[in-house]
Request: fold
Amino acid sequence: MSTFKKNNSSSISLELGSGGKVSWEFFKDLRKIMNYTGKWTNTGDDGAVYDLGKQKLVFTTDAFIVDPLFFKGGDIGKIAMCGTINDISVMGAKPIGISLSFVIEEGFPTKDLERIIRSIDKISKEAGVPVATGDTKVTEKGKIDKIEITTAGVGLANNIISNNGAKPGDKIIASGNLGNHGAVILGHRFNYKTKLQSDCQPLNKEIQTVAKYLNACKDPTRGGLGENLNEIAEKSKVKIILDEKNLPYNKEVVAISELLGVNLFAFPSEGRFIASVPEKFANSVVKILKKYNKTAKIIGEVQKGKGVFLNTKYGGLRPIEMPRGKLVPRIC
Reply:
């Protein structure tokens, strides 16, 4: 029985919106119902693709309901811009425009809205991606929680990077340490004092420097590394093995994960990407990425088979399943 059929007689739970296995399967089943895609391809990737002849148009959309709205290293405006820019970029496309739609609760402080707008403007100029159009609605107090931002973005690509492109022999590369965003958000909610800042940042310029070497690419937002690698492995019909000695998490992120009992592999990032790269290019790609982030490194490899595993320091293989449960709601 499909995940949708198991849930359609009840109600929507937080688990369905938090990323992870149940969320992924549920919306995959919904997609089977709403299955007309016309001439659009790659509708299961981070962006859909439309063939324009010499170039490909990449189109993506997202909604943002972050709690808290302002956090160390960013805010809901910054994350809305970065999330949309990054979803286009991991497809191998150059973002050329963003739309923004605001739904604002009556009584929301104008100074907070101005702060969010200034943050959006800063990222727009930094990434070189204009906000081309938008809309604003105001709803009665209590109808929503403060503010929600919906985005859409378009980009152009000569060659598309798809989630199904990983090949046996590839190396798995992380563009930097992962999970900082999730650790910061959880730390704030549980009043845990940390020096960490969110890793939220646009990736378009960084990815463009290495795009020609990448067989697959994802930004590990909701569901984190665990969901992303399982998705790549399933779609590419390969097995991915991570090396425990090279896991891309710093000590404080690991500590917060253990303290709160949250799956480390489910911790999201908002300014990092993971990629499957042919072995002959892997070291060169890492060298380039280290110019942007010194913690970029090879974290695993792709083999024939299926599933995702961790090669532990004791020499055994431990499965890394797609995360389950409520994970971290309202993270982005």
Notes: The mean pLDDT is 92.
